Amino acid sequence: MRKTNRFVALLMALVLVFSSAMSTAVFANEDVAGTEFEVTVGKLKAVGIMEGYPDGTFKPEGEITRAEFAKIAVVALGLGDAAEVSRGVTKFPDVPSTHWATGYINLAVNRGILVGYPDGSFQPNGKLTNAEAATILVRLVGLGPVVDKQGTWPANYIGRAANEGILKGVNVASSTNALRGLTAKMLLNTIEVPLWGADGYNNDGSVTYGKLSPEQTHLTDMLNVKVYEDKEVEGYDIDDNEITIDGVPTNEIAENATFDFYDVYRNLVDVWVNDDDEIIYVAKTTTSFIDAIEVKLGTTNEVKLLGADKTYKLATSFVAANNSDVNRAGGAVADATKYDLAKVVVDDNNRVIFVDAYTFVDFMVVDSVDGDVVTDIEGTEINLEDFQIMKNGMLVDAEAAVKGDIITYNTTGDGFAEIFTKSVEGEITNIFSTGIRVGGKTYDFNKGLVADITTLYVNEDGDLATFDTDAAEQMEDEGPIAIFLDREGKMLFVTGELGDVETSKVVNILTSDISTQTLFGETSIRAVVINEEGTKVTKTIALRDLDFITLDNTKVEVGDGVGVNEVDYFELTGADLLRAYNSADALTADASFGDLSAGAVDSQFAEDSIIEFHYDTDGNVVGLGLFSGTTALTTTVKIDKDGGDKYAVVGGTSYRLMNDTLLFDITDGTSADDTIINEWSAATDVKEVALGATVYVKGGEVLYIVSGSVDALTDETDVTGLLATHKLNAAATKVTELKAWVNGVETTYVVDSIAFADLPGGVDITNGNTYILTVDDVSGKVIAIADADVVTGGIQTVNTSAREITIAGTTYKLVSGFKIVDITDGTDNGEVINLVNVKAGNTATLVLENAGSVFVELVVVTNSTADVTAPTVTQQITAASTITANGTHVLQFSEELNVASKASVKAAVDAAFTETGAATVTSAWNAAGTTLTVTIAGWAASPADDVTLAAIANQVVTDLAGNTSAALDVQQ
């Protein structure tokens, strides 16, 4: 049976949702909101340097290519528009003229910001390292000519970047790839630090460099942004999209500026204005709170936040002028007065500098929203078109409200409303004449914070009614209730089960047309149905036993609205089902419900239609619910449930699909065995409902769906499995069984005889490798096997607190729920271990969430044996000599060295080389950290460009496990 308190289940579920809701910055890129990158990304987005991706993300953990950073650098120079005219041929053979970034690359290279590699390439798709990023940014501020003469790269540039404040708030390894979030922080620092340039000459005629005077920055002088700090927001106009800020000479807002008017209102803010005198960025520098408040003036001079239970003293400036407003009507807050809602702004000393207060006179429980019109659960509509509406401290449209929300409001001026839901849950332990006690606290009836507001609930008829002692007694023994409160904790709305008040509505689908019969002068209808429980039921119902019939959501009862001499009942006149009544001794018929002619019944009586039976306590049908073509509609668009469709579309009208909408799937017929009935939220195996379905609607919502074409989702699940063992068929051509570690548990699967040809690479699978196993949810068999995306190598570092592992210079992050399996003792003898047991020097395979990502769901340790062997030299570099040719010279060690050893060896090798003429010498470690390769380029026989290699001292080195070698001879 379906109960009238359908709102109860919904609102009880919302208790957990809204009582834990947190306010976030709605305009930030979704993946940086609330993080250390939010302000940085907001500022760079405002000046168009780094704006994120079309899907609304910024991807702070993503890497940057050299071509992408060329664009970033050029835009930071204020030359974004000039890049278009610089498109075309570049000097780099690996950057064709058709490459999207040619204009940016040409400008950056011509300005000396970026350079190519010794082999003449630019590598536009190569990943930018932190060392390269720091170098480019130092050059951006004009320090390239200075730093090039100081020390060796990259230490010279990294040191200068730190000194100039470019690395403020950033801690990165120079050799690792630059990540978007940290690079954004470096870039913001760069555009705000002073610029350098030539300022004179030395005695030898060389140029000297210093900070430009008067001081200049990229932000103010190249991007032409005017900066205003700590200015008060005095007002705003939503319709005209304008804001008034004290001390800022413009109120126009750039089209792409993203901040909330009310969030910054009456706060002190930092403001950026572009050269079109448009505000492009606003950020608060003071703190504000949203809460119900109590004001005390005079000797006390304080404001109490009633919800947060915190008190703040008034600033001297507030006391002097009563810096406040009430209901946006120009009045000031009064002493010893409470306000339903207020924004309280405090200064750096936590003193109140402004209060924007409101009082509410009514509230509503949202049932549906259509544009600006909100309908409550009783069907009453209110148009919030001109209202200022707030949710989570931000201005929103009415469409931000969802079913079950509480909206409190007043109608002063254009009106002000807040979407706010706060609730408690528990059992009623005491009932008083003035209220109830739940969870040890008493809640009074009909007590708003400022004005008395009637406490409401949904009664047995599904209507809003005053919650009083009688209603409380109905709920008292029926389990927990939910109380929805205002900001001070006053009781507004109550939901709970009503004892002994259960309607007896049962929803059914007709398996054949309704027929009629008359026996002994009594007319009955006969209906064969499948009810909502999936049971076949045959009902013969005497029409004169019915108390009411509802047609298209309009209820007609016996005895309603007729004369005092009423003798009315339901009856057939011919084939028409009517309600008849006695008026002035003449029997009159009215309220026709449709034609029951055999073979030509109206749609509400036809096969495959929905009919509601209402039972009394004795199990007799006393009411019918019928739906004709005005409420039983045919969809004109398929309903893509798997794709997230929330509406059924009929022509140009959309009807909301509710969690408790009943789906009658008659794809295979309407027998009890074939009909599948589920609530919409529970129909988890439904992919889509084809167009042409019948939806039964009420007030914009879908009550029921009947469809003969419902597509199910494929019943299979992909899992990541570390293969421990597997078995083949007798011919050794198919896999028939396997054992794998899945979610930290060793699990045995029967395999649906997958041939080698259908396996990755067309060959047998390998124990110890990781695969994606597709498992049939019904049979439990593995029906497909695919390679997982993995990275394998020696672990360089392990950060347990940050849940990070570094392999080959890349740091990988372990996602929530990650597992680690150690198979050092064999694939069939693995064990689950903790991250603290994983050490640098272990060999591991990291299973990635997606190819190319840095997020890891499974770590497979393949060798956790303690490393006690010190590194040795396996290939010595060239002997001391004069080198007269281009080429490479290699120094190789037996295993990866730690960061300090790699730096010291590289420094010793670099110092041993001396180049003349046009010859260049560069060196670099390979990703595995075992091999240092020195590259000589630019050598020519005439004029002589010789390179001299001096003797290199023996080196003491340490591996990742901490084993230190004796002094090693690294040179032939």
UniProtKB/TrEMBL annotation:
Q: Which residues form the SLH domain?
A: 24-87, 88-151
Question: Is Iron included in the keywords of this UniProt record?
Answer: no
The record ties this protein, via InterPro entries, to: Cell_Envelope_Struct_Comp, SLH_dom
Query: Keywords on this record?
Result: Repeat, Signal
Signal peptide per UniProt: 1-28
Record keyword Signal present: yes
- Record's PANTHER family? OUTER MEMBRANE PROTEIN ALPHA (PTHR43308:SF1), OUTER MEMBRANE PROTEIN ALPHA-RELATED (PTHR43308)
Q: What is this protein called?
A: SLH domain-containing protein
Species for this entry: Petrocella atlantisensis
